[in-house]
Design brief:
The complex is a heterodimer of chains A (about 200) and B (about 110). Chain A has about 200 residues and is of the alpha+beta class. Chain A has 4 helices and 8 strands; from the N terminus they run αββαββαββββα. Chain A has an 8-stranded antiparallel sheet with strand order 1-2-8-7-6-5-4-3. In chain A, helix 2 crosses helix 4. Chain B has one domain. The two termini of chain B are about 35 Å apart. The chains are: A alpha+beta (about 200), B mainly alpha (about 110). Chain A: Pfam families: PRELI (PF04707).
Chain lengths: ~200, ~110
């Protein structure tokens, strides 16, 4: 644990969840903004996030006036879906996500917006991640998600679908943070002495 | 590096990703420095030069990869879903930083 917190200190500042309001997570990476943003493109494959199996760029542009890079990607995910969801909506283990990112060096802001493509006629999960520098050595990570069932359903069913999506978001957010921290550590701290008795 | 949707696109994807990463890692730090220290006009010159360099270096492999991945997207029936998502939220410009709503962030 000391090794862990030494190499990338993070704290959970805020986690709120109320009915129909966005979920929000805020954390810090002990890395400069530029390192975090370079790391974005190296996040997958990742042993913490084995549910993401494919990543493809389908569009990318570099704005020659602003220097902003826009990237549109499709992520292919494999994740066990509860039987009741499959029975209700069909679908399979394969799920696809559209992700659009903007990297703006001038304002030092990176935003990543994701939305599910699969089962999007039934429910949508909009997720937004933002990376902003808080100091030359620290980057703030803010993640919000809006999850909503789209169709008119019985209230109990809507609640059930939403709470399943919320659970999945929380689980994936946790795994995503752990996975990305490892990526950044491997990329930028290769000389880290192995001092921790607890590290395996 | 992660795999592509279609195994046959994976070599092209990896070549393209490697090309982009090399370019991006050379681009980012100077772009930040330029935006801090240099007047507006000159920063644009830097962005313009680097955008051209990206096209020169990675344009050819991108064209090949794009063709491959577009077919993979069609084959998996994702084209309509993508089109629908783009219509709902084109996201051609960075979203406002206030967070919150994911809808209609184009200005």
């Amino acid at each position: 644990m000391p090794f862990f917190s030494q190499s990338f200190k993070y704290e959970c500042v805020n986690f709120m969840k109320t009915d129909r309001t966005p979920l929000m997570l805020q954390r810090f990476f002990s890395h400069p903004w530029s390192h975090v943003v370079i790391g974005i493109w190296h996040k997958y494959p990742n042993p913490h996030c084995t549910h993401v199996v494919t990543v493809d760029v389908i569009d990318r542009s570099v704005d020659s006036d602003t220097g902003i890079i826009r990237t549109e990607r499709v992520l292919g995910c494999k994740q066990k879906t509860p039987v009741w969801i499959v029975k209700l909506f069909g679908g399979s283990e394969d799920a696809y996500v559209r992700e659009i990112s903007f990297v703006d060096p001038a304002t030092q802001s990176a935003t990543i917006t994701s939305v599910n493509l699969s089962l999007s006629q039934f429910a949508s999960c909009y997720e937004r991640i933002q990376y902003r520098p808080t100091s030359p050595h620290q980057t703030m990570f803010t993640q919000t998600a809006e999850i909503q069932a789209r169709m008119a359903m019985w209230r109990t069913m809507t609640d059930r679908v939403e709470s399943w999506l919320v659970q999945r978001f929380e689980q994936n957010a946790k795994q995503g943070k752990a996975g990305f921290s490892d990526v950044l550590r491997t990329m930028w701290e290769p000389e880290q002495p192995q001092l921790s008795p607890g590290a395996s | 590096m992660a795999h592509s949707l279609s195994p046959e696109c994976t070599p092209l994807k990896q070549a393209y990703d490697a090309c982009f990463n090399t370019w991006f890692e050379g681009y980012l730090e100077p772009a930040i420095a330029h935006s801090k220290n240099v007047p507006q006009g000159q920063r644009n010159e830097y962005a313009k030069k680097k955008a051209e360099e990206f096209e020169q270096k990675c344009g050819a492999v991108w064209a090949q990869y794009k063709e491959c991945v577009q077919k993979a997207v069609r084959d998996r029936g994702l084209e309509d879903l993508l089109e629908q998502a783009r219509q709902e939220n084109p996201l051609r410009h960075p979203p406002s930083t206030s967070g919150g709503s994911g809808s209609s962030s184009t200005s």
